[in-house]
Amino acid sequence: MKADTILGINPGTRRIGIAVMRKQALVYFEIKSFQGTWSRKKLHNIISFLASVLKQYDVTKVTVKIPDTLPASLGFTQLIGSLNALCEHTGIRPRYYTFSEIKARHCREDAPTGVSLMAAIVDKHPELWPEYRREQKNEEGYYHKIFEAVAVARMVRKK
Asked: What is the pTM of this model?
């Protein structure tokens, strides 16, 4: 029986973090930026990128990190709707997890933070140390999207 390949997605209308995992091993990760104002073309570019990842890695499961309070922006709504349509087209039912659920699963302390989540993930995936160090120096937060994508991919429990 073939092992599941999981795509973890931290969606956004400007940047998307993705992580591909197989047998709890991190196969690929990336932050992809999409410049410009929101438009149908930008949405198409994002969905085309995700479709290419699904195909290239023969993804069998998709997990998506969503904020605890969903944004009311048109762009985010359209992105999630199009992601649902893409997954439906490929026969995959995406699973959505809030940031609070993700932190609760991976962090040990009572009041987990994004920083403690990154530390927990880098402990499980030492290959992310360079990104972890870069994120510690980055004032605006950039690489956290990778750690959150890995964390959401790890939400799928082994059978």
From this structure: 0.92
User: Listing from the earlier edge strand, what are the strands of the sheet with 15-22?
Assistant: 25-33, 15-22, 5-10, 61-66, 95-98
For residues 51-64, one letter each, b for 16 or more C-beta atoms within 10 angstroms of the residue's C-beta and e for the rest, the string is: eebbeebebbbbbb
Q: How large is the C-alpha radius of gyration of the chain?
A: 15
**Closest Cα to residue 29, out of 121, 103, 136, 111?**
121
Give the span between the Cα atoms of 38 and 13, in whole angstroms: 7
- Rounded Cα distance between 66 and 68, Å, is 6
Q: Give the domain ranges of the chain.
A: 5-153
How far apart are the two ends of the chain, measured CA to CA in Å? 13
**CATH number at 5-153:** 3.30.420.10
The answer to whether the beta carbons of residues 7 and 54 sit under 8 Å apart is yes
Q: What are the pLDDT digits (tens) for 85-102? A: 999 999 999 999 999 999
